[in-house]
Amino acid sequence: MHTPASRTSSKFAHKRVLFSYPPEDSASFWGIVTTFLSKHFPGVDRNTINQALFLFWFSLIADAALVIFGLVHIVTYDQIALGFIKLVFALLVTTNLWYVFQSKNIAVGKSVFLALLLGVLLILFVTGGLAQTGILWFFSFPIACFFLHGKRNGLWWMASLYGLTSLCVLLSYVGLFSLPYTQLIIRQTGVILLIITIGIYIYEHTKEQGEKTAAQLAAIVESAEDAIISLDLHGRIVSWNKGAQYIFGYDESEMLGNSMYNILESQYAGELKKMLAKVAKGESFKHFEIRYEHIKRKTGYVSLTVSPLKGMDNEVVGAAITGRDISYRKILEAEVATHTLQLETIISERTSKLKDNLKELKEAKAKEDSLLAGIGECMIATDRDGNINYINNVAANLLHLVPSKAYRKHFDEAIQIVEEPGEESKKRISALKSVTFHRKTVSGEFTFVTTGGSRLPVYVTASPILVNNRVTGSIIIFRDITQEKEVEKIKTELISLVSHELRTPMTAIKGYLSMIQHGDFGEVDTKLRKPLDQVYNSTDRLIALVNDILKASRIEAGKIKYDISVFDLKHTVEEVIAELAPLAQQKSISLLTSVKDSIQLEADESKVKEILNNLVGNSLKFTLQGYISIGIKKKDDVVDMLVTDSGVGIPDSEFDKLFGKFESIETPTDQMAEKPYGSGLGLYISREQARKMGGDVYLVSSTPGQGTTFAVTIPLAGSQRATKAKTQIEKEEQYLQKL
Amino acid sequence: MAHILLVEDDTTLRDMYKTKFELEGYEVSTASNGEEGLQQFSAVQPNIVLLDLIMPKMGGVDFLQKLRETIGGQEVPVIILTNLEPSPDIMQVLHRNNPAYYLVKSNTTPEEILGKVKEVSDLYTPPS
Questions:
Q1: pTM score, whole prediction
Q2: What's the pLDDT tens digit per position in A233-269?
Q3: Do B20 and A543 touch (CB under 8 A)?
Q4: CA distances in angstroms from A9 to A12, A20, A254, A260, listed in the order given
């Protein structure tokens, strides 16, 4: 096994001889000099080396000129002093050049050189040089100063030349010496020099900008993470940035001049070769993904973009390659592919499991649905917020609802409930609608409105659905009670009719009997008196029974009329006592009352009287001796009338039955000579009527053998309770009239 | 003695009341329905009317309304004598036509009715 490093080094060992750097032809004269200089000034940039080269050649030319012209002056005995001065300057220039190469300090050397040149030029300006042509040497100065010092410092040097020359002209005016040139020549030379200066300045400026841009581009290319490589059309590498070095592992010095094909696997090299042939015709290629071998790291992947590089004449001179390392992406892709495969397996397993579950659920649901559909009762289920999530066919048919439309609708929206007059109906409906809130089962008769708008009496049971003591919804079961209502109505009507028809013959019996007893048909035999009395009493009982039944049926049908007015209870109590006093006297029972003052009540006086009559009458029936009293107890807005007796009492077990219909109460009647008669409707009727008027009838206490106390509650005149009861009665009457 | 018009469809009751009042010395005319009652009223001009409510052909309520439109019928005292429990609507109609009493037959003996008749006829003096 090769390690990447050893494999690579052996691979490139024979190729290093091919590398040539610097790229200039090393055999030329310039090449030799440049090589010499770059060796002499190691670590110095190309620009400075060029300046050194310039300084070297310029100094040699200046030396040559100065020596030649100096010697000519001396040999021809013309201006011998000037000849010597030129030789001195030549010596100084040479010394400076020597200094530069010794100290390697170009900065100082170039300034000294320019100062010497300035001096020579001023001497030539004042003396005229050979044949008065010294001023022409001025044109060499801007080239030297701008090249050596750049555009800004170059301008300063040019300003110095102009300043010193102007000083010489001024001095000649004051007569210190005479200039060998005419004014015209000086001015023309000055103007031409200015034009040359401006030209060179602009050239330097453009060059500097170009260099700056190139430097920036180079910096960008260098710092890029992506590989940026340029090739010639033969596939040789011309440039190689840090990104390329990072990706492929080779540095610039190794790769420049080497063939790109050498670092690629043969299949990619072949492809690249084909691409380059096409790139030469101007085509580009994107996302050419290749595998590469790094010297030290593992094999990676890079995505290459290959596009043509064009020269000045817009002809393709090479190819630019940018490469992005996609090794990490490839790894991720591979991982994703693995995960996807695993996921697919898991999903397919789960799906098949789900399918099984779904099938089971469907079966269970079908079973449940058929069960629910089979129930004769109507059923609606809602979620916690009251939205319908189930409605069975019976319910939908009854209410003429389309199940799919009712589904998800709110119960209130889907089903309208008729509100009857009065607070009670409102309360009942609101309780029915909020079972999920108060968590109590609500049941009772309601009237629903079907989709067609017709009213439908129903018996409803609404219960909350509790799961782990959390309400998850409600279930509403109801059934049509139209028929039951009909039957009830017929029953009430029948009772009413029968009672009425019974009354007529009984009236005749009672009437004739009373006339016989009264002696209207002659004196009654004393033997007949007792049986006649019994017949009469029985008839009365029969009539009372019929009356009670009739009244109860009328109460249920709401057909009893109440005349609410203010009356004095004292007066009512007096009347009741007066009416029942004879009977009490007959039984030797004292009938007492503690009502001595006026108390204004608000109710139907005749009904209150009837109720009191009934209660005192009951007491009379069940009291053998002692007393019956009517007392009162005032409360906030009502009065409790207490009817107390010293009668046989009622056993606890019978309390519940007291106010029922036709309930026969087991009283300890064994002590009594005969069982007292009652229709079993008296208390029921009394209580219903009292409640209608905003009051009540209830058992306060009863002890067998000691006595019983009943209470009748009736609202005080002007009390809220009385007003409320009155309003309610009026509303109900209006409602009944409408029907 | 006052003249009573008894409008009652039940023969037994009609006979019973007739007997009772004649025994007391009243002059009694009878009718078995409202139509007959109106004819009788015009014919005999009674001082007092005892009126049943539920009758064939013409009931007591209609009779009373017509009676009040008849000459001499506006003022005559009428005692309703029925086995019908007073319901609000019937009472309303009756009330407009000013009956003297509303008695439930089964709860009242002939003797008691006699008392009411005496009371009413004492208050009412027929126009001469």
A1: 0.44
A2: 888 888 888 888 888 888 888 888 888 888 888 888 8
A3: no
A4: 5, 19, 11, 16
